[in-house]
Amino acid sequence: MADECFRHPRLAAVYDALDTDRGDLDAYLRMAGEFGARRVLDIGCGTGVFALLLADRGIEVVGVDPAAASLDVAREKPGAARVRWIEGDAAALPPLRADLATMTANVAQAITGPRAWQGTLRGAYEALRPGGHLVFETRDPARRAWEEWDREHTHQVVEVHGAGAVESWCDLLDVSGPLVTFRWTYVFTADGEVLTSDSTLRFRDRDEVAADLTGRGFEVREVRDAPDRRGRELVFLARRA
Asked: HEC states along 26-65?
């Protein structure tokens, strides 16, 4: 199930305005060009930011996400008709022959359960043509990114068109082994409504991810530093045999 920040209509509507720095997507766009991708599966597409960037470049895109509210936002954006939007997850997709499958930002880590993770990797494998690539990022657990997931480091107030000022901040709730749980609080100053969204991410180390990929039939071609979080986050490039 998607987190509240993606499936609540009011939160989905302001998501893009509260997360404007998407420079992390530049590396994915470059890799789409590097692989000569003409068909891309965007797993966990959310409000469609990356899918629409790809479509703007003439790429055929399928965006899949379990959060209906986020997909509703995506479908209202300019150019949305060029993307095929699917409500659901990668474990149950129609037949595809994609050149590239992606999981940007926190998507891979948000799939916390072993069965769901294996189902996602299986679904991505089946959706790719032979020789197609799966690319995703994951934070290095040794860097303990969650230690800055507090109000001091995350508090902001953003003026959102049509919604007014929205105050938000993050609080760390629990760290249990590889699972890290945190809560975002949102205050809509226009009417005083307060909404919260709890999330859990799974921190997998490099060897665990590589083993999971090879166990699902992928060849790990390369592991790169994420350009926006060098030394803190890794990007995995895996090829379907």
From this structure: HHHHHHHHHCCCCEEEEECCCCCHHHHHHHHCCCEEEEEE
Q: How far apart are the C-alpha atoms of 90 and 41, rounded to whole Å?
A: 9
Nearest to 155 by CA among 175, 188, 184: 184
Beta-carbon contacts of 194 under 8 Å, excluding residues fewer than 6 positions away, are 185, 186, 187, 188
Tokens at 208, concatenated: 């665990």
CB 100 within 8 A of CB 61: no
Return the closest-CA partner of residue 107 out of 99, 98, 116, 94.
116
Look up residue 170 and give its two tokens: 């993050």
**173-210 pLDDT, tens digit each:** 999 999 999 999 999 999 999 999 999 999 999 999 99
Measure the CA–CA gap between 220 and 136, rounded to whole angstroms: 12
Q: Alpha-carbon distance 136 to 214, whole Å?
A: 15
pLDDT tens, position by position, 26-83? 999 999 999 999 999 999 999 999 999 999 999 999 999 999 999 999 999 999 999 9
Amino acid occupying residue 114: P
Please state whether the predicted TM-score (pTM) of the whole model is above 0.90: yes
DSSP, collapsed to helix, strand or coil, labels residue 80 as: helix
Query: 42 phi and psi, to 5 degrees?
Result: -100, 100
Closest by CA position to 54, among listed 67, 42, 69: 42
Evaluate the CA torsion angle 84, 87, 88, 93 in order and state its sign: negative
Report whether 55 contacts 115 (CB < 8 A).
Answer: no
Measured in degrees and rounded to the nearest 5, phi and psi for residue 94 equal -70, 165
